[in-house]
Amino acid sequence: MKKYLTLILLMCLVGLSYGQNKIINYEYWFDGDYSNKSIITVAPIDKLDVNSTLSTTGLSDGLHCYNIRFKDDAGAWSSTLSQFFYKIPNTISVDKKIAEYEVWIDNDYANKTKSTVSPTDNLNVNTQLTTTGLSDGLHCYNIRFKDDAGAWSSTLSQFFYKVPSTISVDKKIAEYEVWLDNDYANKTKSNVSPTDNLNVNTQLTTTGLSDGLHCYNIRFKDDAGAWSSTLSQFFYKVPSTISVDKKIEQYEVWFDTDYANKTTTTVAPTDNLDVNSAITTNGLNDGIHTINFRFKDNTGAWSSVLSQFYYKQSSQAAVDNFIVGYRYWLNDNFSQKTYVAEATPAKLVNINTDLTTAQIPIGQNYINFQFLDTKGMWSLVSTTEFENTVTVNIIDNTFNNNFVVYPNPTSGKVFVDLQETLTNANVSIYDISGKLVHQFKFTNQKLLEFDIDNRPGIYFMVITSDERKTTIKLTRN
């Protein structure tokens, strides 16, 4: 299994300078087996790209977790970065088909029903389900599928409700009951004239309830004696002495989780308070922190806590910083990144690079950029989405879909996305005079790849499969 991880511990902003710890080693382990971790020592470095092949020998087939953490030259460990992955069997089939399925109700797996089908890629199960012997009410329908390699899928479950065989078509509400919180014993019952719809619009007494959050519950009974499910709604009982016009009269500030060293400030009572004052960060280490505020009103009640992340920079003097190079890559292909060095360090870089579309997937893609400064620090990744579209000159087509051909014009290499896997596909290339110049045969392929090594000009590509055929115009540069 290959696993690619990129961890940026600290970031650099152009024009600023601050202290930087360095990574000196890291350790990784699978699942919860920390005792068998692997420890790797590296030369001290600001940023480490871990790009290595890991052995999964000894791991069972199935879902696992890869864990990694890093230690800096101050002896501090980073938090653990974890990633799920799936180890597939060595003998896994590339093209599996459904060969069997089984169905059962609720937890009665012992009485499951098995059905064998002709091997197929997709199976639409559309059969009537007998519920004889099931009680009225809520049940669970379960189904799972077995492929032609003998492996079972996960279970797909769906709830359903079995209604009584004597169910009334036109039931009416005849009664309802109401209670607060979990105090069902003190519920209030009300009878009403049978009706299709009932609007409950009555005042609710909350005498005896404490101030704060509560739950209002209601359910209805029809004229057949069946109760509905319970409808619940939260509400908040405010103190009877609540002040209509509260004012802020105090606030407190603290960093991170150090509430014990909070700073408390009293202000003249006010409806709105703009906290605009210098806050000392002496004693805080460089890096990311949280500043926390909360406010107290003139009734003595505190607000919820307002928190904000911020970054404390080094006290070192700021110096000019410049971009000395950049790198870019497509989608998740960081291993195929391209680095470009700037001839002259600059604060702004105008990137104007032509990209070949031959190896870019058709449809939505994204390109990533990172910039290197004079301190050797990489910027955050900047990502831009774009779409790779292809114009195909289709002359005739009896297939159910249009193929995607790229690049067209081509310098030799041609890719054809059939949009489906064909058991057999024959490709014939003709020049403008109708002479056959190339012929290719493919079996069980969805993406075809071949070369036209002829001189530049117009060619016609004919693709046939069984009784279907399409003709596409190609241009060779």
Q: Your description of this structure?
A:
This protein has 477 residues and is mostly beta strands. It is built from no helices and 28 strands. It has strands spanning 2-7, 23-30, 38-45, 48-53, 62-72, 81-87, 98-105, 113-120, 137-147, 156-162, 173-180, 188-195, 212-222, 231-237, 248-255, 263-270, 287-297, 306-312, 323-330, 338-346, 363-373, 382-388, 393-397, 404-406, 413-431, 436-451, 457-465, 468-476. The strands form seven sheets. Strands 23, 24, 25, 26, 27 and 28 form a six-stranded antiparallel beta sheet that branches. Strands 3-2-5-6 form a four-stranded antiparallel beta sheet, with no helix packed on it. The chain starts with a strand and ends with a strand. Residues 1-19 have low confidence and may be disordered.
Protein topology:
Elements: E1 2-7, E2 23-30, E3 38-45, E4 48-53, E5 62-72, E6 81-87, E7 98-105, E8 113-120, E9 137-147, E10 156-162, E11 173-180, E12 188-195, E13 212-222, E14 231-237, E15 248-255, E16 263-270, E17 287-297, E18 306-312, E19 323-330, E20 338-346, E21 363-373, E22 382-388, E23 393-397, E24 404-406, E25 413-431, E26 436-451, E27 457-465, E28 468-476
Antiparallel strand pairs: 1-4, 2-3, 2-5, 5-6, 7-8, 7-9, 9-10, 11-12, 11-13, 13-14, 15-16, 15-17, 17-18, 19-20, 19-21, 21-22, 23-28, 24-25, 25-26, 25-27, 27-28
